[in-house]
Write a structure and sequence with these properties.
Layout lengths: L1 E8 L5 E9 L2 H36 L6 H32 L8 E4 H18 L3 E4 L6 E4 L1 H17 L6 E8 L4 E7 L21 H6 L6 H11 L3 E7 L3 E8 L5
Parallel strand pairs: 4-6
Antiparallel strand pairs: 1-2, 3-5, 6-7, 7-9, 8-9
The structure holds adenosine-5'-diphosphate.
The site of adenosine-5'-diphosphate has 23 residues, from helix 4 and helix 6.
Length: 259
């Protein structure tokens, strides 16, 4: 609590009472802590790859360059850590843009079935390389209200995650479905799944169920935070169903244009 006091005086400046105001700042403190945690997380996430780029470059300059095998290995690490930094920076900028108060959706009628088809075309190769089949089982055209570029981003993030957290031989299925109250985008995988108590946390910035695993897969822990913000900006809803060891289904419901 934040406490402030003020005396109540009468005409003769005599003390008649005291006003004490208790201001509940729990929410403010919570926000402040979240901001501090976020800054600490960002610094840590940025420092890790930078430290490794500097370290490996110094080792190369100190003589490792003479050994072709080491040189190759170290240069590859430097390249992948630099790419990691690049992804991290662009996702951070993206998140900060969509978290701004005046972030606005450019409302359009979005052909969801076509948009999903286009997105799948881009990601089929990536799934194939991992030995995963990516299929779409949409049977109807669906029109949602929203920003096609942003909805595409939601599709990419969800399908990319499905590819990341599914092993070779697994399957990913997508679908656009018309519902009474909106249009649904469904992304379902036969991957590692998520423990029920972890589900509410996966939308937090930088939260990862298994940090090392996500990092090895090139994850930043920001993808679902971006999805959550974008879905909220669309006035939509996210449902997650998952069974550890069996798979996960994300369902996003978007608004439909008024008929
Ligand atoms: P990351 O960059 O780590 O993938 P995200 O914000 O996209 O970050 O996701 C947060 C965490 O949620 C992931 O690290 C992972 O633990 C979990 N997760 C997301 N999608 C899936 C999925 N389809 N199957 C299993 N776990 C998932």
């Amino acid at each position: 609590f934040d406490v402030s006091c003020a005396p109540i005086l009468d005409q003769n400046e005599r003390l008649r009472g005291i006003v004490v105001v208790f201001h509940d700042i729990t929410e403010l403190k919570k926000l402040e802590k979240m901001r501090k945690d976020f800054v600490a997380n960002v610094s840590h996430e940025l420092k890790t790859p930078v430290t490794s780029v500097i370290g490996f470059t110094e080792t190369l300059l100190d003589g490792a360059m003479e050994e072709p095998e080491l040189q190759d290995k170290f240069l590859n690490i430097i390249l992948s850590e630099s790419k990691r930094l690049q992804t991290l920076i662009s996702e951070l900028l993206e998140l900060s843009k969509i978290e701004q108060e005046h972030f606005e959706i450019k409302w359009e009628h979005v052909q969801m079935t076509e948009l999903l088809d286009d997105t799948i075309m881009v990601l089929t190769e990536k799934a194939g390389e991992k030995g995963i089949t990516l299929t779409d089982s949409t049977k109807e055209a669906g029109i949602a209200l929203g920003d096609p570029q942003r909805i595409r981003q939601i599709m990419i993030n969800l399908i990319t995650n499905a590819i990341s957290y599914t092993s070779a031989g697994g399957k990913i299925q997508t679908e656009i479905k018309n519902m009474g109250d909106g249009v649904k985008l469904i992304v379902s995988d036969t991957g590692i799944g998520i423990e029920p108590n972890q589900i509410p946390r996966i939308f937090e910035r930088f939260y990862r169920v298994d940090k090392a695993r996500s990092r090895n897969l090139g994850g930043t822990g920001l993808g679902l935070a971006i999805v959550k913000h974008l879905v909220e900006a669309h006035g939509g809803r996210i449902d997650v169903a998952s069974k550890p060891g069996e798979g996960t289904t994300f369902e996003i419901t978007f608004k439909k244009p008024i008929a």
